[in-house]
Each structure stands twice: as structure tokens, then as C-alpha cells.
Amino acid sequence: MVNLKMPYTIHSNVNYNSIAFASTIAILILATRFIATSSCISSLSDYARPPPRKIISTPHNGTKSHPQQVHISLAGPEHMRVSWVTTKKKNEPSFVEYGTKPGQYDASATGDHTSYHYFFYTSGRIHHVVIGPLEPSTTYYYRCGSSGPEFMLKTPPSHLPLEFVVAGDLGQTEWTASTLRHVDKTDYNVLLLPGDLSYADAQQPLWDTFGRFVEPYASHRPWMVTNGNHEVEAYPITHSHAFKAYNTRWVMPFAESGSHSNLYYSFDVAGVHVIMLGSYADFSSGSAQYQWLEADLGKADKERTAWVVAVLHAPWYNTNIAHQGEGEGMRRALEELLYKARVDLVFAGHVHAYERFVDVAQTRVYDNKADPCGAVHVTIGDGGNREGLALAFKEDTNGVSLFREASFGHGRLKVVNETHAHWSWHRNDDSYSTMRDEVWITSLSSSGDCRPKEMPKTQLKSVHNEL
After folding, report:
1. Residue 252 in contact with residue 286, Cβ under 8 Å?
2. Percentage of the chain surpassing pLDDT 70?
3. H/E element holding 141?
4. Residue 46, number of CB atoms within 10 A of its CB
5. Segment 109-121, tens digit of pLDDT
6. C-alpha distances in angstroms, 421 versus 203, 322, 344, 418, 442?
7. Helix, strand, or coil (residue 16)
8. Residues 6+ apart with CB under 8 A from 467
9. pTM surpassing 0.70?
10. Residues of 235-262 as b/e, b for ≥16 C-beta within 10 angstroms?
11. How many angstroms separate the CA atoms of 269 and 158, rounded?
């Protein structure tokens, strides 16, 4: 079994730039509690804003052939992708053995490997192997490359309920460690990360330390990620190829979802359709991403999909002083597509704070106005990044921002059934996690007035691969 207590070193002098529920009465009680605790726009006055914390550097203590940076992701129906790195120069097998009993592997799969160069840095051998078919809600034990430790993973259920953890702008600081400890205290099925993973910012060894840092968590629950501005890592003339490390290390099921780019893709899990969008890939009308999104929404099985969730990096709605207007171009280009498809929730990162755009009467947001058929927008870029919190908010002139607070934390979305889900945001407060915001959400697919409109049956044109 993998040891969840990874060794690490703290660097203090390094500058890194760059419900089924009981009854209607119970719901009313929860709603009353929610109004009492979170109707205020600003945070509690007696809570001191936490400052940034030190960077954690996680060393590799194994041999060069020892698998490290192990993480898993969903890879189409009943399959998962296992990814890891080895640093030995000779050929190491891209091979995974797995089974439902510890130490007994009755199945195996072979994949491939790659590596990349970035200026004077050369990565280790990066392996990707798809395993399956796997049974839902089942614990599997697996080993990478016929050596090293045994890892454990649990597959998501095939039916609701289902629980997502949402944490953006992670980095690898002491606050990140706190966030992940809080996340791991309660069981969940899938982690969604709306961009800004390692904060390497071209310092490639930080991708390695990040992979080792998150391995205890990302190796036993699928992490589904999208890209942020810190993943771009492109510079004029000297290094123009963007997302090189991200695309090589964190391969997502883009091909399985009909996408031509690892920067945007979708997946289905237990009746929830999740769309991962690329804030830093072309999203204009007629672009490859626009065409793919239109086709993806058009082919979604409305009979089997009760919930639709979108994840991106730069928020479309934001009352924080930081990053004002940076998501506006993408909102103008894509929001109508999501609105017609009746996307229920949109999660974003980028702004290092928490903010939720929906009121207690379940009025959503569309085109900068309250709209009962719009999406619930949540900014959750407070996972633990090294840059600190975005403390200043401006006046909410549109009256659609219900709750906002500049603190580190994570969110949980428990999709209870086809009609109701519970969203909660948990603030990091030193050694314990405090739930500061919660709300029950009703799916748009269950609303007679907000059923999804018929999307055009768009055929994807042949486009260049944006990997």
C-alpha cells in the first residue's frame, strides 16, 4: 500500500517567480441555516486572513526505476489512465498489473511512454497506461512497471449519489498540504481541478516535486484537471510551444470525448456530464474548441444525464479586484452554448478567493443578470497557491454575488439524485476545516421551465491537433 505520509522538505528562502433527504421540512431547515450563515457578502470580521505559506519540496527517495508521481484519471467508460514517471535511462516497461485483492494481480495492461525537453531540462520517462474494464464502486490494487509499491484506487459508482471535490490553484505550499489533508478526511469519488497545478512557471523540476507531492491523493482517486495560466509556459522566440509539460504529464481523456486537444475534453460519471474547458485555447466562434463544445453538448444523452457541469480557469463572473474581466471574452463566446444546454454549474479558479453567484431563491446567472435557467457560477481558486489570497472585492453592481470570502479552502459537490445536489465550501483554518457556505441546488433538467433546448447536431471538422 502507498504511504500517505510523504516525506518533504520546506524551503523558506527560495523565491519562485513567476438525500435522498428526509423531508421537505429538512430542506427548509437547511435553507434557513444557509440564509443565517452566508447571506452576508463579506467574511466574518473576527477572522484574520491567512498569509501565504512556505513552498514544500518533495524529494524522490526511491531508485531511478522506482515509479513516482503516480496519478490516475478517468479514461472513458469503465477505464482509468494510470500515469507515472521513472528516471532511469534504460527502458522501463509501461506496464500496470491490477486486481481486487492486495498483492494478487489477475489483470494487466500495457501503454506507452514519452518525455520532453524544456531548455536544459529533460524529463524522466513519463508513462501512461489505460486499465479496464473496471467494475464500479470497487477497490483495485495496482502496481506500476512491475516494481515499486502497491497502490490502491476506488472506482466511482455507476449511479448516483456521487461526490466531487473541487480545488483550484493548488500549488505545493503548506496551505496546499492543509487543503489536501482536509479533502482526504472524508471520502469522495472524483477531484476536479480548474487549472494552475504545480506553479512551476517554467522551472520544470517543480513539476516533479508537485507530482510527488500530490501522489498520495491523486494515485487513489481520479484527478480530472484543466489548464490555467501557470500551465502555459510559453515565451516568445525562446520557447513558443505552450503547455508542453502539462500536456505530456497530465493526459486527460480528450480523444475519448472526441476532442483534438488535451486542453478541453469531457467525461461522464454516474449520470453527470462534466465539460473541462480551456481558457487559454482558442474559444472564438468557429474555433476547434467552439466546434467541439457545440458537438459535445449536442450529443449528450439527455435521458441519462441529469446534471451538466463545466470547469474552466478564468471566471466569467468576478467581483474581486484581481483578474477583472479576464474571462469576459470566453463568456461572450461560449456562455450561450452552455445556457441553451442548461449547464447546471460552472466552476472556475484563477482568482485566489471563493465566490458563489446564485441566490437563496435558486436564481442563477446568465448574461450578467439573474436568470432561473442560467448556471450556478463558483470561483474556487483558493487551494493553496504560493501567491497568496486576493483580498479585495469591489461592489457587486449586478446583485448576483451572494457569498465571497478570501480564504484558502476546497469545495464539495454531492450529487444526491437526479434532482438535488448539495454544494459546500470548506475553509482551511489551521488544523481543521470549517464549512462556511452551503446550498442545495436543483437540477435544470428537472425543471419544466428550464429543460435543455435542442442543440444543433454539429459535425466536427478536421482540425489540427492542439497538443
Report:
1. no
2. 84
3. strand 139-144
4. 5
5. 999 999 999 999 9
6. 40, 30, 10, 8, 7
7. coil
8. 243, 247, 261, 262
9. yes
10. eeeeeeebbbbbbbbbbbbbbbbebbbb
11. 7
Backbone angles phi, psi at 334, to 5 degrees: -115, -15
Give the per-residue pLDDT at 462.
39
323 flagged as catalytic: yes
Instruction: Specify the DSSP element, H or E, that contains 82.
Output: strand 80-86
pLDDT digits (tens, 9 = 90+) for 22-32: 333 233 333 33
Q: How far is CA 181 from CA 9, 213, 258, 360, 435, in A?
A: 17, 12, 35, 30, 15
Tell me the backbone φ, ψ of residue 26, rounded to 5 degrees: -60, -40
Kind plus residue range of the DSSP H or E element containing 25: helix 24-38
Q: Read out DSSP for 222-284?
A: -EEEE--GGGT--BTTTB--TTHHHHHHS--STGGGT-S-TTSEEEEETTEEEEE--TTS--S
- Residue of 66, 260, 323, 420 marked active site: 323
Reported as a single tens digit per residue, the pLDDT across 382-415 is 999 999 999 999 999 888 999 999 999 999 999 9
Q: Which candidate, 359, 352, 413, places its Cα nearest to that of 388?
A: 352
Q: What is the gyration radius of the CA atoms in the chain, in angstroms? A: 21
E-strand spans in 290-408?
A: 307-311, 345-348, 354-357, 364-366, 369-371, 376-380, 403-405
C-alpha pair distances (Å), 55 with each of 123, 213, 241, 348: 21, 11, 27, 24
Tracing cell 531511478 back to the chain, one arrives at 64
**For residue 171, what is its C-alpha cell?**
500549488
Average pLDDT estimate for 321-334? 97
**What DSSP character marks residue 459?**
P
